[in-house]
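Re-run with default settings, no changes from the original entry. Doing this only to confirm the output is reproducible before filing.
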Amino acid sequence: MKFTRAIVKTPCKAMTAGITSAELGMPDYHLALEQHQNYIKALQHCGLEVTILDADERFPDSTFVEDVALVTPHCAILTNPGATSRNQETITMAPILEDYFSHIEQISAKGTLDAGDIMCVGNHYYIGLSERTNFQGASQMIDILERYSMTGSTIKLDSMLHLKTGVNYLENNRILVTGEFIDKAELQQFEQIIVEDSEAYAANSVWINDFLITPAGFPQTKKQLQQKGFNLIEVDVSEFQKLDGGLSCLSLRF
């Protein structure tokens, strides 16, 4: 897949009150802004035109734009985030997506779905059933995908927040994988690049146009990816890690 655009949203000051299960301390807002700028530069280095949305103090977690929409080659699908505090984020994203997509769909209650639970492999979309994404939401998503000649299937999560917290597709039938996803039957057809538990956060790396953006600070994973021949771009996202957010969470790419 060739990507040409990305949408990001500037972190708001209220991010320090964002949802988290991590025990890494409160994020530094000013450092987060700096890291976000470096993330944008990495996307641009991959050849993407980046649309930067203003911060929105109403929604502490809104910098994690990936969760509120799935963008596909045929349509954009607004989600219904599983965290109540994030439900209204889709309202602000809808008019943005209308500038790029002629077909926009939406997940409706009682279905819940975070797009961080969706991994695209070609024309197929793996959907994680998690605390944020329920069966009704996944079923609605699969129905929408099939209307546009795409397919979807589900993978049940046992402990991780999102599907892409622990597994990400790196093209050419390769996945970067850690934890509970290593032994998932649904993922055994892929060549697995296994991330050790001590560096599990690095499993959320993003392949874009023959580059691989990966979080800084994980030397074992970096060495392994270099040995595999990946063209790496390291970005420090420590302040977003404190909010359970990873590299993929910070943009919509299409």
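The first helix runs from residue 29 to 45. Residues 67 and 115 are 4 Å apart (CA to CA).
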